[in-house]
């Protein structure tokens, strides 16, 4: 029994002495001590300095995981439990991030989610089960194109890049193009967008684009902000032509934030200032006549003609009675649409006077000649 107790005591003494020796060794070799709590990591190289930008802890990511990365974006890379190797990195001209230890990682054309996975795979050779959080803290300048039923179709730069503002939306881009036209079908807008990964050298995609259908009528009628799509660099917006629009829909559409603040209508004939006139949307016919200077003394003041272009490409003309005391009415004092033309005819007396003036003009010319020669 005594021998057994002596054996146990000696074993405990060996364990204590071993622990003391190991502790002393680790104090003298801190690098070895660090490897006992996490995987061995090579010493990082000094990364090029970047301008001071807000960190992800201050602003959060400017975009969601579907945002497609490109040259000029600035990213915050956080590696869980390894802060020494986290930091801010810019997507360089070759489309890559230059991360310490790992080196160059191609991310151009990838979504944020895909780039996160790519970085984790590259770190897997150095870290067991790496956990990476990727945030976009600075966006590159953004170019989009808009075609179809807007007043100024074309290409636009919709952000300067580098700032902390949110990405521009579809309605903001439409406003940049001076708003929609009266022929716009906002129920069937399409946004053509590059697919994530389609520009990667490892990608075998052949399609390259996705089509995102947008119904802005839901935004207009129900306030559904999810329909106001956040745009990305390279998006192409197509606004088709409507086949039919009711008078009520045209009136409501004219009040939308992405409709123009003014429309151009034409007033021709016997008014004070004939020609093109800028008026607010939904201006009634009577007010447009007054904006053009009102009837002159040769005008037929009882009726005017209204010529309107229809969404299907046809034109209609109708005669309307004019009563300046009349309120807005589709039958007698309709709200005007862009490019409507109001024709103010001559009165019967003015036509008669012009007719006799034309007949008597040669006689008057002859009398003037005789007077010239004193006859």
In short:
With 375 residues, the protein is of the alpha+beta class. It is built from nine helices and 15 strands. β1 (74-79) and β2 form a beta hairpin.
CATH architecture of the largest domain: Roll
Secondary-structure-derived class? alpha+beta
Number of helices: 9
* Count of extended strands: 15
Folded structure, characterized:
This protein is an alpha+beta fold. The chain has 3 domains: 56-138, wza like domain (wza like fold), CATH 3.30.1950; 142-160 and 167-254, Outer membrane lipoprotein wza fold like, CATH 3.10.560; 263-344, Outer membrane lipoprotein wza domain like (Outer membrane lipoprotein wza fold like, Roll). It contains 9 helices and 15 strands. β3 (96-99) and β4 (103-106) form a beta hairpin. The longest helix is centred in the N-terminal third of the chain and has 27 residues, at 2-28.
Name some characteristics of this structure.
single chain; 375 residues; alpha+beta; wza like fold; Outer membrane lipoprotein wza fold like; 3 domains; 5-stranded mixed β-sheet; 9 helices; disordered N terminus
SSE layout:
Layout: H1 2-28, H2 30-35, H3 56-59, E1 74-79, E2 87-90, E3 96-99, E4 103-106, H4 112-123, E5 132-138, E6 142-148, E7 154-159, H5 170-176, E8 189-194, E9 209-214, H6 216-222, E10 236-239, H7 247-254, E11 263-269, E12 275-279, H8 285-291, E13 303-309, E14 315-321, E15 341-344, H9 348-372
Parallel strand pairs: 6-10, 11-15
Antiparallel strand pairs: 1-2, 1-5, 3-4, 6-7, 8-9, 8-10, 11-12, 13-14, 13-15
């Amino acid at each position: 029994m005594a021998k057994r107790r002596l054996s146990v005591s000696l074993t405990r003494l060996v364990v204590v002495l071993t622990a003391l020796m190991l502790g002393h060794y680790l104090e003298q070799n801190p690098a070895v001590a660090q490897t006992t709590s996490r995987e061995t990591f090579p010493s990082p190289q000094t990364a090029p300095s970047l301008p001071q930008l807000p960190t992800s802890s201050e602003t959060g990511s400017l975009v969601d995981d579907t945002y497609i990365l490109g040259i000029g974006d600035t990213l915050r890379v956080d590696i869980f439990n390894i802060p020494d190797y986290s930091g801010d990195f810019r997507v360089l001209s070759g489309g890559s991030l230059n991360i310490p230890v790992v080196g160059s990682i191609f991310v151009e054309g990838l979504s944020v989610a895909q780039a996160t996975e790519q970085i984790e795979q590259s770190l897997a050779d150095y870290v067991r089960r790496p956990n990476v959080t990727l945030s976009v803290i600075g966006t590159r300048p953004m170019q989009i194109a808009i075609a179809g039923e807007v007043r100024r179709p074309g290409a636009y730069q919709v952000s300067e890049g580098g700032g902390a503002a949110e990405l521009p939306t579809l309605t903001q881009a439409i406003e940049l193009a001076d708003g929609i036209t009266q022929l716009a079908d906002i129920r069937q807008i399409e946004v053509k967008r590059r697919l994530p990964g389609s520009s990667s050298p490892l990608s075998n995609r052949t399609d390259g684009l996705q089509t995102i259908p947008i119904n802005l009528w839901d935004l207009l009628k129900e306030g559904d902000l999810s329909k106001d799509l956040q745009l990305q660099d390279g998006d192409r917006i197509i606004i088709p032509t409507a086949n039919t629009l009711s008078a009520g829909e045209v009136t409501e559409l004219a009040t939308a934030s992405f409709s123009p603040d003014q429309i151009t209508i034409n007033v021709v004939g016997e008014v004070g200032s004939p020609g093109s006139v800028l008026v607010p949307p939904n201006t009634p016919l009577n007010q447009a006549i007054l904006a053009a200077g009102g009837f002159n003394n040769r005008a037929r003041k009882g009726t005017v003609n209204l010529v309107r272009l229809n969404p299907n490409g046809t034109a209609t003309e109708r005669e309307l009675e004019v009563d300046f005391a009349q309120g807005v009415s589709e039958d007698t004092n309709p709200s005007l649409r862009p490019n409507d033309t109001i024709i103010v005819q001559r009165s019967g007396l003015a036509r008669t006077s012009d007719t006799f003036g034309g007949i008597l003009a040669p006689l008057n010319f002859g009398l003037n000649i005789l007077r010239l020669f004193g006859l």
